[in-house]
Amino acid sequence: MIVLDTNALVFWTLDRDKLTHAAMTAIEEEEHRVISSISIWEIGLKVKRETLVLPLPVSDYVERLKRVEGLRILPVDDRTWLRNVELDWSHRDPADRTIVATAMLDSSPLVTSDATIRSFYQRAIW
Question: Which of 3, 11, 49, 112 could cross-link 18 (Cys pair, CB 3.0–4.6 Å)?
């Protein structure tokens, strides 16, 4: 299993040229890809704030994600929230913390372009 952060998800589904070779290889070689449902929230906020432009409405994008073979959207459950608040990390972004917690719970690699996440989580790939 491999976890994709929000940017990696958007790049992988809409603009693969923005992924590094290592990130693309890691995603394509893994049979089970996972995103946290908090990425949907983050995408929605970015679209609403006009810092992200999608070629379709967010609801349609999410429906398409649900049909991507080998991709699962994990809910943020109590276990994930508890891991999130237990992180010994001063980073305050709730989405980043939740995505890292999701990866950590199963010791999964995490594909991310975010240098702050990569400096904290040793299994990060970019």
Answer: 11
CATH of the domain at 38: 3.40.50.1010
DSSP states of 13-65 as a string? Answer: HH-GGGS-HHHHHHHHH-S-EEEETHHHHHHHHHHHTTSS--SS-HHHHHHHH
Residue 40, domain extent:
2-125
Q: What is residue 2's three-state secondary structure?
A: strand
Cβ neighbors of 95 (< 8 A, separation 6 or more) are 6, 36, 38, 39, 41, 42
Q: How many domains does the chain have?
A: 1
Tokens 């908090």 — which residue? 38
d(C-alpha 23, C-alpha 80), whole Å? 24
The whole-model pTM stands at: 0.92
The span from the CA of 6 to the CA of 40, in Å, is: 8
pLDDT (tens digit per residue) in 25-84: 999 999 999 999 999 999 999 999 999 999 999 999 999 999 999 999 999 999 999 999
